[in-house]
Amino acid sequence: MHSLKTLLQLPCGWRCSRQIISSDGITLHLHGKRKTAQCPECFKRSDSVHSCRRRRIQHLPCSGQTLWLVFSVRHWYCRNPACSRKIFAGSLAPFAGSHQQSSQALQNLQRQLGLIAGGEAGKRAATAAGLRCSADTLLRRVINTPETKQSGAPHVGIDEWAWHRGHRYGTLIVNLDTHRPLVLLPGRDQRTLATWFRKYPEIQIVSRDRSGVYATAAREGALQARQVANRWHLLKNIGDVLERMMYRHMPLIRLVASELSPKKSPDPEPSVPAASLRRPERLKQQTRKKRKRTA
């Protein structure tokens, strides 16, 4: 049983008393082995059992089949007279939260499916793998993803993004070391950007486009940072300078090109047998030959 628990990532402190394989999937009935439980309110341990109730939780699929875990969860009396809670249920944390119908590992898998494939496509992929969920569930997992702690970075890139192209724009700030977004700002006004820069004095380099708003905001909020052009605008600036220089010196370039290009000798006239020409054409040909000899 120990190897089965390790393989299926089952929680500790539970023993499997029954296994059922049906069209609904694989169902494992689990009973708790602990004789006491800790009250979540006063943290005192209790050994007085009030009742036992079943809790059905979907876990990670097993061999392409849905895996259900039925826990016989005990409810306990809290014997601490100073505690406001008289009865409490045994906890399954961190395996599953209170009132949840799926394990934490399954929720993480659903979140990844939602992020990669979206709602409907993720649902089809989950069904093929033996995971039962709806498209709304996958999207809800994505929406409820805990936000990572926002932090600054020594090297940041700033650019605009479009809510509605040509009408409304926001600002995207990216960590250039990790290539991950730091923040999405709803607008691109100078005051909001400068306020954000002031929160992170560790910023050393700001890579931006040629926008005057971004340049002013970086000067006001991150005076210690050095502003540089991003890769695309750096190449664009080089191309523009080279193009202007070429137009300015175009007459000289054409003159040098004409001097360096090899001069072509005139093509010799094709020799046509005189017998095949008509009389006027034969006379013209004879006249040209005489002129060449006398020249």
UniProtKB/TrEMBL annotation:
Give the species this sequence originates from: Escherichia coli 1-250-04_S3_C1
Q: Where is this region: Disordered?
A: 258-295
Q: Would you say which domain of life the source belongs to?
A: Bacteria
Query: What positions does the domain Transposase IS204/IS1001/IS1096/IS1165 DDE occupy?
Result: 156-290
| Native organism taxonomy | Bacteria, Pseudomonadati, Pseudomonadota, Gammaproteobacteria, Enterobacterales
**Skewed-composition ranges (Basic residues):** 285-295
> Domain named Transposase IS204/IS1001/IS1096/IS1165 zinc-finger: which ranges?
36-80
One Pfam family assigned to this protein is Zn_ribbon_ISL3
Protein name, entry field: Transposase family protein
Output the InterPro entries linked to this UniProt entry. Answer: Transpos_ISL3, Transposase_DDE, Transposase_Znf
